[in-house]
Amino acid sequence: MPPSIEIAVLLLGVLALETHRSATALHIQHAFASPNQTNNFAVDPVSRKVYLATVNTVYQLNGTLSIEVEQRTGPVEDNLLCHAPQLPQAPCEHPKSLTDNHNKLLKLDRDQGVVLVCGSVYQGFCELRNIENISEIAVEFPHQGEKTVFPSMLNIAANHPNASTVGLIFKSQGGNTRLLVGATYTGAGTQFFPKEPQQGGPAL
Ligand SMILES: *[C@@H]1O[C@H](CO)[C@@H](O)[C@H](O)[C@H]1NC(C)=O
Ligand SMILES: *[C@@H]1O[C@H](CO)[C@@H](O)[C@H](O)[C@H]1NC(C)=O
Ligand SMILES: *[C@@H]1O[C@H](CO)[C@@H](O)[C@H](O)[C@H]1NC(C)=O
Ligand SMILES: *[C@@H]1O[C@H](CO)[C@@H](O)[C@H](O)[C@H]1NC(C)=O
């Protein structure tokens, strides 16, 4: 059979479809079912690995959707009024409770061999995981010896399940890799600003 264009599509984290140039109908070739709601997915065009982020888990699947690595991301002890625990010297007196981690951003950076994973917990904290094995943290935060860490370095994605976050990774002219993020400002987590309704479209 001659090779043809293959398009892998995940529908609600359940279906992968393949289409052939010669055929008009789509058929399911491989399927992967995740127990929890799917938030995001990304496909590495070279390795053909599929990265799938659901509520409380990220998956690394091979090209035929078998699980290579499964990494839990939640639920975690959190409180909207607390800084991320990764922020040094930021104790929080508010009681924390087990909180679901809705994935907000899942981006691949092939050049640096990392996957960016940001969730709704810890004020929208992001992690850089190893693209070959997403259970491994590629870059610890804060860096060893890093003395100054600002909350704005950690609060990246929206901290609410229903608030939008979009982002892209690009290389600037100087060759530095940058992350551009647009996130709904939720007002959740501060007593000084009113909460905004979440039901509307994304406000960037
Ligand atoms: C799915 O989410 C529930 C909470 O909503 C959590 O208890 C469970 O561990 C999650 N399962 C996976 C596989 O992430
Ligand atoms: C994915 O893993 C399964 C189970 O190990 C294996 O049968 C299959 O050939 C693998 N697919 C690819 C594209 O490597
Ligand atoms: C991924 O890394 C974890 C932790 O280092 C290890 O236990 C696991 O075997 C690795 N999985 C694969 C598929 O390499
Ligand atoms: C998110 O929106 C859905 C649909 O409007 C609603 O049912 C749900 O309660 C909202 N979740 C939160 C945590 O506000």
TrEMBL record:
InterPro entries: Plexin (IPR031148), Semap_dom (IPR001627), Semap_dom_sf (IPR036352), WD40/YVTN_repeat-like_dom_sf (IPR015943). One of its GO terms (biological process) is regulation of cell migration. GO terms for molecular function: semaphorin receptor activity. Residues 9-204 form the Sema domain. GO terms for cellular component: plasma membrane; semaphorin receptor complex. PROSITE patterns: SEMA (PS51004). Keywords: Glycoprotein, Signal. It comes from the Eukaryota. Residues 1-25 form the signal peptide. This is Sema domain-containing protein. It comes from Champsocephalus esox (pike icefish).
